[in-house]
Write a structure and sequence with these properties.
The protein is an alpha/beta fold and 162 residues long. It contains five helices and four strands. The chain starts with a strand and ends with a helix. Keywords: Hydrolase, Protein phosphatase.
């Protein structure tokens, strides 16, 4: 089968941003013919929503845009670093939390901000995907747009690794 790339998206509760990012990337990998060589999942930094579906607004914007929306929330575990090639934070708070959990330099090197893969996001830009949870559907639509903008750059990174 050859080399596989394993990617985990991480946000706060694993019900809004990271499931959206996961479904967008999965679809882009299908389009790129790479779906069989990449394992994509997601998790939250906290356990509050473990076992829950994605937020109904996240499911809605995903489905309306033609993506899947099946999801079960879970919390990121530090031992997962060993089985992931990239651990992708949705904002700098998640990035800090993941760096705190990383036990080695090799694990820390796997952590990246999702928007760092967006070619239109400059180095000086705020690379956070803002939390839509306390907003309306339009905030979830914005989250989807930001994830779509970063997904193609991540597909390019996957190609380089394969």
């Amino acid at each position: 089968m050859g080399r596989m790339v394993r990617i985990c998206f991480v946000c706060t509760g694993n019900i809004c941003r990271s499931p959206i990012a996961e479904h967008v990337l999965r679809e882009r990998l299908v389009d790129a013919g790479l779906a069989d060589r990449v394992v994509v999942d997601s998790a939250g930094t906290g356990s509050w929503h473990e076992g829950d579906c994605a937020d109904a607004r996240a499911e809605r914007v995903l489905r309306e845009a033609g993506y899947g929306a099946e999801h079960t929330a879970r919390q990121f575990r530090p031992e997962w670093f060993a089985t992931r090639d990239l651990v992708i934070a949705l904002d700098r708070g998640h990035e800090r939390e993941l760096r705190r959990l990383a036990r080695t330099r090799e694990e820390a090197a796997k952590i990246r901000l999702f928007r760092s893969f967006d070619p239109a996001a400059g180095a000086g830009d705020d690379l956070d995907v803002p939390d839509p949870y306390y907003g309306g559907v339009e905030d979830f639509e914005e989250t989807l747009k930001l994830c779509e903008a970063a997904a193609d750059g991540l597909v390019d990174e996957v190609r380089r690794r394969l």
